[in-house]
Design brief:
The structure is a single chain. The chain has six helices and seven strands, in the order ααββαββαβααββ. It is α/β, with parallel strands linked by helices and 197 residues long. It has a single domain, classed as Rossmann fold, CATH 3.40.50.150.
Length: 197
Amino acid sequence: MSFDRVAHIYDGLARLVFGKSWQKVQNSPFHYIQESDQNILIAGGGSGKLLSGLDDKKITYIELSSEMIKKAKSIQTTSIVNFIEADFLNWESNERFDVIIFPFFLDCFLESDLKKVLQKTTSMVGRNGKLIVTDFQKASPLKYWLVRLMYGFFRFTTGLKVNRLLDLRTQLKTVGFKEQELKDFYGGWIFCSEYKI
C-alpha cells in the first residue's frame, strides 16, 4: 500500500468532498495539545498540514509514502521534525511521547493489524501522555455509502486492503485507552478524541 499516486491530489480531493470545514477538522488535534507537550509523534500525517500549527516542538513524523513526505517537508514550522519513511508496524522506538497523533490513520488497517497498532501504541505513550485520534465513525446510511466509495477509490489507487469502517473508538477502549474528550464533525461522521492509557 502506498499513497504516492494520490499525494498530489489528496488535499484537494478532501476539500472537494468535505468543503470549507475541512480545515477545522484538520486543526482539531491542536485543541488537546498543551505548551508542556514537547515530544510529539505523528503517524500517517500525509502531506504535513498538521506541522504548520505545531511550533517549537520535537516531532517524529512517520509516513509510508515518500511523495507525502516530500510535501510535508515543504511545510514551514519552527519545530524540529524527524521525517521517517516507514510502516508504523515495522518501525521500532524506545521513546515515550507526550502526544501521539493519528490523523485519519487507523481507518487504513484491517482489524488484525489495527489491534497490533493499538497495542504497540500503548507502550509508546509517556507518563501523563495522550493519544489524539481524528478519524471516521459510522453515521447515516448516506455517509456509509460515501465511505464505501472512498475505500473503493483508495483500494484502486493505493492498494489499500480495507473495505469497511471499523468501530475505532471501541477498539481503542478494548486495549485500555480511556476517552477524555470527544469532538464531532459532519453530524458525527468524523470525530477527534483525546485518549489516555
